[in-house]
Amino acid sequence: MPADFRNAPPPTPIGRLRAVPMHIEELRAVVTLDAATGAGSVEATVDYVVGPHAGAPIFDLRQTVRTARLDGTRLDPVELAAHDVGPGAHSSIRVVGRTQAAGSSHRLSVTYRLDTPDADLGGAYPPVLHWSNGRVRWSFGMSDLYAGRYLEAWFPSNLPFDQFPWTLELRVTGTTIAHSLITNGAATVVGANAWTVRFPSWFTTMSSLVELRPADSVVLRSTIVSLPVSGRTVVVETWKLVGGQENLPALHARVGALLAEYETAFGAFLGDRFVCLFHGAGGGMEYAGGATTAAGALGHEVFHSWFARGLSPAAQTDGWWDEAYTSFRDDGDTRTEGFDFTRAPVRLCARQPFQRTTPTAAYDDGSRFFRGVAQWIGAAPLRTLMGELYRARRGTPVSTAELVAHLVSGSGATDLIDACHRFVYGFAESTPDARLVFGPAPSLWNRHEDDRMAVHLNPKAGRDNWIHARITNTAAAGPCRCFVVTFALRATTGTPPTFPVDFFPAQTATVDFELAPGRWRTVSARLPAALLPARGTRVSVLASVHARRSHPASGTHVWEHAALAQRDLTID
């Protein structure tokens, strides 16, 4: 996948270094598990590109590095030290202790003994590396609720914003006992107890499933299932532990039925296999096209291959929305509950770039948020909007702000920004209220890149464009904690547009934060090429800005309310 740093952490001072994000282009890990000695070794190589800012690149690894090389030169492992940057235990990242140029390419190689990761090991199904009489069990044991529990537990990895391919070369030595590899990667057997596994470029640090167990300890069922929307056939693999009480044939059939149900409701399944291990523990964990789960959590975990690992959170601070929507779906997705603004604020998204856990409130308070959305716009329209989001963005990370922008622009329910202010971002009420308006000219313009330059260029057909707006919080108002700006394209007519009927549904929107009284800011939103009309078409861009208790009145026109704006233009 191409580098995308929109949801990456900003440059951050860490000691004497300026820590900056990287994009991993390729990870290769060679793992040898010696069952005779009970020792595992890893040689890992990361090819990466530094982001748009010069500095010391960040990554994560919860193993103890023995040796390191950077661009072929020996590097003291001390220069890859972990630094505590986030709230709570185990909230650390590693920093390459060298300043590197923006956009430069590098190779980092490390070796280490594979061991239980230096991560929060809580939960019903933690990471395991266990040896016993020639038998090896290795479980990735990922978790959203415990820090350091994604790919970084075992291998050099990145934060959730990044997508990258990687290869695992795994060999079990020192034993004649056959082992089975359970994985959502493309595995090739290259010898006795030896595999090469390739994971695709759209995977994030949250995606990969690896379970290694003695072959005589697990039972496999595998069939091919035809899906109703994509028309594709996918392989369904279900596994259980020998002696487990699960009815594997029945559960296997249910996986196929769930895949068909969710594809019908939301769009094509992303992948050609679904791999599920019934692990004999409580609860479950989702992977991309896979799960480790108890039977009772099966529907929840399969659904996550649409919302959590088909669309994935762009950062751990965005990890609330997939659990929230999946929990809402668990209840049938038709329950509604009005927002109660007398309730205390709820912070589901703290907007902390180095947060490493999903808040437990995501399940109950998050589900309540979606019940509130369903109350305002209807359960069926909410389902439609979430399906549109999935189909437009599947295989990519999605931030909370992008989710909010989609819900507001698609539904026209601008009061959703009020609900998000209090029940997603957890902000208290401002006194007095913010009052947002479009700023002085140019208040609305288009660019061919997201460059924030205040010179209008007509949109070009056949490519993405970026609509820009200048937003002001008036001097006598209160502080604005979050706001949304929506942009609609309509054919230009002689009739003046009326809010909201002509402004929604909008083609795009953007969410921003923290605008003080008397201050202004330029914001932008991507206008996808597919949404642009043909060259030569005359269109009007209709924009509106909304914040908590700051909205234009229904029935108003652009000249009647400064929170509305219009620009007529021609598609080039």
TrEMBL record:
SUPFAM superfamilies linked to this entry: Metalloproteases ('zincins'), catalytic domain (SSF55486)
Protein known as: Peptidase M1 membrane alanine aminopeptidase domain-containing protein
